[in-house]
Amino acid sequence: MEKKLIYLDNAATTRTAPEVVEEMLPYFTERFGNPSSIYGFAAANKEEITKRREIIAGVLGAKTDEIYFTAGGSESDNWALKATAEAYGKNGGHIITSKIEHHAILHTCEYLEKVRGYEVTYLDVDENGNVSPEDVEAAIRPDTVLISIMFANNEIGTIQPIKEIGAIAKKHNILFHTDAVQAFGQVPINVDEMGIDMLSASGHKLNGPKGIGFLYIRKGVKIRSFVHGGAQERKRRAGTENVPGIIGLGKAAELAAASMEDRMKRESELRDYMIQRISAEIPYCRLNGDPVKRLPNNVNFSFQFVEGESLLIMLDMKGICASSGSACTSGSLDPSHVLLAIGLPHEIAHGSLRMTLGADTTKEDVDYVVDCLKDIVQNLRNMSPLYEDFVKKQAKEK
Ligand SMILES: *Cc1c(COP(=O)(O)O)cnc(C)c1O
Known about the structure:
Residues 6-369 form the Aminotransferase class V domain. Belongs to the class-V pyridoxal-phosphate-dependent aminotransferase family. NifS/IscS subfamily. The protein is α/β, with parallel strands linked by helices. The chain has helices spanning 18-24, 40-60, 73-88, 103-116, 133-139, 162-171, 243-281, 308-317, 327-330, 337-341, 346-350, 363-382, 385-397, and strands at 6-7, 67-70, 94-98, 119-123, 144-148, 175-179, 198-202, 213-217, 285-287, 298-303, 320-321, 352-356. The strands form 3 sheets. A 7-stranded mixed β-sheet has the order 2-8-7-6-5-3-4, sandwiched between helices. A 3-stranded antiparallel β-sheet has the order 9-10-12. The relative contact order is 0.15.
C-alpha cells in the first residue's frame, strides 16, 4: 500500500497538473520541431508559443510581446536586475530592494555591488514583513535606477503594497520590478494598474513544469539581452525555445486564472482554519507574516523550545512534507534572513515551520497535520532542557 503523503510545501514547488502534462506530451514526441525552422511542421510551434504568450499576457493585463520566456524565476530576477542596471546606470547607480527578497534578488544585488560598483539599499520590514511605501520613497536618490520589491514573500506569505510602490516609482520616473514568483496565478495582478515595469514568474510554483518561467518587460523599457545568440524572444533571450515548457506554463497560467477566485477562497479558509487551530491548541507559538495581507496558502509559525529540523523529521515520519526557516535546511548556520528581518531572535527563528497548502489540500489533511503537530511539539518540548527550566520557573512564580 502506498504511504500516506500530505504535501504542504507548495511554496517550494508544486505538482504539475495532469492537464498540463497532457498538453506538453506531444511537444516531446511528434511535435518536436524547432520553432525557428521554415517548414510548416516546425514553424507551427512558433504559433503555439505565441498563443501561450497571449494567455500569460492576458492574466497580467499585459501585451503579448511584453512576455519573455526564461528558464524560471531565478533567471528572470537575474535578468531584470543585471540588464537594467547595465542599461540605465552604466557607471554604477543605486538600487532599492528589501531585506526579505528571495536569494535570486539578494545575491544578484550583492554581485552588482561587489563587481559592478552599484549601491543597494536593503529596506527594513515591519514585524509582519511589510515594506513601507514611505520608506521606499525616502530611499530614492538622484541616481536610483531601479526599485525591486517582491509581490509576496515565499516564507511568510506577506503580500506587499505593490500598487503604492508602483505609483511612487512612476512619480519619480524610476523602473519598478517585482518578483511575483509566489503571486502569479495565486492572486490577481494587473501590471498597468499596479505600475509594474518588470515582473518575474516561474512555472513550477503554479502547477506548471520546472525550468520555465518568464519576465514581463513593459514596452519601452531599455533592457539588454540576457543571453546573446539567436533571434529568439526578440533577440533578448537567445536559445532554442523550451517548447514543452512554454506549452505547460501557458496551460498552468490558464488553469490558475480560471480557478483563481475559487481557489483563493477555498485555500484562505483552510489557511485561517489551520492558523486558528494551531494558535488555540499549541501554546507558545507565534504566527509569522501578516495575518491579513497574506498569500491564501501560507501558514508559518514559530514554536518556542523546539528546533525546526526536528519538527520536519518528525512530520516526515507521519508522511507530512513541510519546510523550515531554520539553519540546516538553508545550508548555513544562520536562520532565514526573512525571519531575522521581521525581528525574531535566533532561537525563535530556529523553531519555525512553513506549511503551504495546495489545490488538493483538504480539511481532513489539515486536521491530521495539526493533530500530529500538537503531539510532536509536545514530545519535543518534553525532551528540551530549556522547556523544563521554563516550566519550573513558571511553577515557582505561581
Ligand atoms: C521559487 C522562487 C524563485 C526562484 O524560482 P525558480 O523558478 O525556482 O528559479 C524566486 N523568487 C521567489 C519568491 C520564489 O519563491
